[in-house]
User: Which sequence fits this backbone?
């Protein structure tokens, strides 16, 4: 409210009717008082009664004034004298001050914070008071009970001018210990039950989603899937009990396909609550068994031949082995970087959805002519291609690579890398065709090309070819 508006509301217009009524009431009161005085004054004790009535009237007026000043809820005296701000102006000043404070703190950032507090009444309240003192809004809160104390995980919206170091010091002063904090984004605004249900749905639809779902469930961590048998068929000695193992910053879970899934987080110990969630997700994967989405894309090559691009798994092992038999040693050498006779041993591992995603290309007759792999390698992601000799230089490799990169973007990967020989011009050309920032590393004839995906949309890398879909 502005000063002009307040001044207008403070001045009320006077009307002649009200003045006339007040004047009539005054004359009536004087006449009644004179009649009563004459009636009482002519009696023997009349003067004494008039004096007693005056004293009682003065005492009543004094008592009423004292009582009103002590118990009145009226505005302060400045509002009546006109020398100070009225109630409207006071409210306007308060609103302006709040608006100024809001404008100063309009720029905010999101933080994810985790701290350990004592499991005593009032411990969490002390943290909330410390956060409120700095105008920090608590968006979500999760509690992870421990044997001693409780781990509280917050999603906070804080003023951008408040540094993380100061926030950590304030939390420590309020009783928090082992405090960890990092920047968050809008994806963290989804509440935990909704996020867990979404990850369970993705895992139920595709077995290759389990490592990605675990990483999104547990935050920044490294996940390794170690098979029970090596590519040579020998036991690796990797195993875990059915209930899993939790050791501070490492958890080991039994892989439903054999072997063990190891999850490591070097900076923050896992809580029993996180361990229970991860184990439940793995148990869901085990109950559902092997599964791969069966959608297919039918494409037309420039020369008119039709090919089908689809997901592949271990059910395609025999067809993949047959394709190996039709490939030259040079083609297999460029793909596997080792003895050609060992190439067949890698296929069972590569086709497992536990270690990544595989795309297969087959002809109209059902013959497998190309494979593309997107492999989870800890925090990194590898892409690899194998195209049968008779089907090379037809755009199949570029088609597969574009789709694999799109899957990597969809999975939230920051980059992908390809390992090949320095003279493999076909793979280098396919990577350059992605129009992404590339890094090259050459060592003893081996070339590693890394593409930084940044925030590129997944649809960008799917070539615009003539397509029709069938499911």
Assistant:
């Amino acid at each position: 409210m502005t000063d002009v508006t307040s001044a207008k509301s403070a001045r009320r217009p006077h009307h002649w009717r009200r003045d006339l009524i007040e004047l009539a009431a005054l004359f009536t009161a004087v006449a009644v008082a004179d009649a009563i005085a004459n009636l009482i004054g002519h009696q023997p004790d009349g003067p004494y009664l008039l004096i007693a009535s005056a004293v009682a009237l003065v005492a009543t007026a004094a008592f009423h004034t004292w009582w009103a000043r002590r118990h009145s809820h009226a505005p302060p005296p400045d509002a009546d004298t006109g020398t100070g701000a009225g109630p409207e102006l006071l409210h306007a000043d308060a609103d302006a001050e709040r608006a100024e404070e809001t404008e100063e703190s309009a720029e905010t950032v999101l933080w994810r914070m985790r701290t350990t507090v004592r499991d005593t009444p009032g411990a969490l309240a002390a943290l909330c008071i410390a956060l409120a003192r700095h105008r920090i809004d608590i968006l979500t809160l999760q509690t992870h009970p421990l044997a001693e104390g409780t781990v509280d995980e917050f999603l906070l919206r804080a003023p951008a001018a408040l540094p993380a170091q100061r926030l950590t010091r304030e939390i420590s002063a309020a009783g928090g210990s082992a405090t960890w904090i990092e920047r968050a984004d809008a994806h963290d605004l989804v509440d935990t039950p909704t996020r867990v249900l979404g990850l369970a749905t993705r895992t139920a639809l595709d077995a290759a989603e389990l490592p990605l779902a675990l990483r999104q469930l547990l935050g920044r961590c490294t996940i390794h899937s170690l098979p029970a048998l090596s590519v040579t068929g020998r036991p690796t000695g990797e195993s875990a009990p059915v209930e899993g193992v939790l050791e501070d910053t490492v958890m080991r879970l039994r892989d439903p396909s054999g072997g063990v899934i190891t999850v490591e987080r070097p900076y923050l110990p896992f809580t029993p609550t996180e361990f229970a969630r991860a184990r439940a997700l793995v148990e869901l994967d085990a109950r559902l068994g092997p599964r791969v989405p069966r959608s297919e894309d039918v494409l037309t090559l420039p020369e008119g031949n039709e090919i089908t691009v689809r997901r592949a798994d271990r059910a395609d092992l025999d067809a993949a082995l047959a394709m190996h038999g039709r490939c030259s040693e040079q083609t297999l050498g460029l793909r596997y970087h080792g003895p050609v006779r060992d190439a067949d041993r890698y296929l069972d591992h590569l086709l497992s959805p536990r270690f990544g995603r595989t795309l297969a290309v087959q002809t109209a007759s059902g013959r497998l002519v190309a494979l593309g792999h997107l492999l989870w390698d800890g925090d990194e992601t590898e892409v690899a291609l194998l195209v049968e000799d008779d089907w090379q230089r037809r755009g199949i490799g570029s088609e597969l690579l574009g789709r694999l990169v799109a899957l990597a973007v969809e999975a939230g990967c920051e980059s992908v890398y390809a390992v090949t020989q320095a003279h493999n011009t076909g793979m280098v050309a396919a990577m350059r065709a992605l129009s992404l920032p590339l890094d090259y590393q050459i060592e003893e004839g081996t070339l590693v090309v890394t593409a930084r995906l940044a925030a590129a949309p997944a649809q960008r890398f799917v070539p615009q070819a003539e397509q029709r879909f069938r499911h």
Observations:
- The chain has four domains: 3-70+88-101, 107-189, 193-288, 296-470.
- Confidence is low (pLDDT under 50) at residues 1-12, 73-90, 464-471.
